[in-house]
Amino acid sequence: MSVTVLCPNGRRVTVKMTPNTSLLQILEEACKKEKFNPDEYNLKHLKRVLDCGLSVRYAGLPNRCQLEMVAAATPRTPALVTVHIVTASGLRLVHDFSSTATLWEILSHHESDKSSEEILLPASESGQEAVLVYTMTRISGPQLHTTTLRTLGLAQGKCMLRHSIQSVNTQGQAHVSGVLPKKPKEEESEEIECEKTKERETTSIRPENKPCKGGPASLNTIRQLKKDQEQRESRQQREDEPMETTEPDTPDENLKVTCSGTESAVCGGGNTAVNLPVGNTAETPTTTSDPPPDSSTNHNVIKLGEHNAIIFSMDEAPPTHFTEEDDTFFQLSVGEIKRLYMEQKRTIHQLEEAPLRTKNLRELEDNKRVLHALNQYPVTHIRIIFPDQHVIQVAFKPIHTVADVKAAIKPFLANTTQEFQLDLRHPHRTLDEKETLVSAGCVPNARLYYTTTATQSGPSYLSADALANRSSFAGACTNLTQRKHSRRKIRDLAGDDEMKEEARSSVGHISQSSLPTEARSYPSASAHSSGAVPKVPKWFKLGK
């Protein structure tokens, strides 16, 4: 890996680096070649001034990129660096050091400090050494004597180093806490068997489809052969075993009856299954116990008011079972990464190549969006959720306002004079009373949350009459689903023309006069269908 640094004198310097190289090291090496003072300059990538205390790994620099040296606003002056050393036992050692101090000097200072009994520098005869980790950079052995804080990019500020004592022969990455496990004995035996098969094949003619080829496919083939052999042996063993019949503990003639019927019953609550004839099932006395009634399956629906309000409680909802996903669930495959990259690239291209729009065109697009929503969703379903988990489910037209929703739920409140607000979550937003449901983004359905600054006077926000006419949770959900299916059937039977006509009649606030000039100048669809010739502009001339 390397970068190209553009110096103030116009020359370019190529500096080799690693992911753990600090940007301050790159700046110092470039200044050393061109004889500049590194304390007076910073590095700049594109339009971003980089922090010289970061490493290449965390600066987000690609390989072979070009950096530029720019004059610093304030020159860097030698300052103290507060170093935090966290040991394996959890002890934290804090002290201020100069940026030119080596890591060995820092450990020696804390080792000589009598206040801490932690062993930071083990003896060389013990076969162990001290290891320091800083931003995934592992420093140990002789590197502690040559690595300074400035080498790590720390000229000022604070830093944290993780300290541990490891064996001299142990080699591992900074973020790996354990040694990799050994290969299982089963795989070793399979590899040995594969090698023996290869030796036998060298002395004989290889068949056309020999399973062992010395690669990963050969190991899978051996495993599959072993698995098939075990299945054949278990199948043969089951066939050789005699059939065992279990008799019930209590002698009963009804239990000894066997015939070729297709129904079976479990008698006496035990584990003995007896085949019963289809025609004589009524003669055999059987006792069945009905399951207890479940509140979630009770489809009780009571509609109140003009907007078919349904009141229910979220406490009756069945519990939601969450399953914990492993880490592989969140790992993206190569195809998913490519797809996300192409979508992001397409979005950026659309934003860059999108033409500039006037205010009238933007209003026209907003009106088109509203008309499309009115055509596709003539009715919107709103659920108002109260803090005590009670819910009011109502149906409105998209052109209704938030004030209409508040007026519809006021008769069901315990305190009808209390001021309240309706909020949206994710993101949190308080709805304006003059705002329509379609402009507020509440089409085709939405969840609104009841909020108030006043204290609750009774046990519930709803009145006693409203709670007496409460429906079940399953009934409210079923009613919502049935309305959607019925609306879809009506749309399929009636056709799109009637739905469009209903949408045009319902949108009274969007008139032809409120549309922009561009929208009024376009020929209408009725003119084309009736055969009328639209007006031709004066500047348009037909060719000969």
Automatic annotation (TrEMBL):
Region (Disordered) residue spans: 170-257, 277-296, 492-544
Residue ranges with Basic and acidic residues bias: 194-211, 225-240
Stored SUPFAM superfamilies: Ubiquitin-like
Signal peptide limits: none
Domain of life assignment: Eukaryota
Acidic residues compositional bias, start-end: 241-252
GO cellular component, one term: cytoplasm
Cited InterPro entries: RBD_dom, TUG-UBL1, Ubiquitin-like_domsf, UBX1_UBXN9, UBX_dom
Record protein name field: RBD domain-containing protein
Source species: Petrolisthes manimaculis
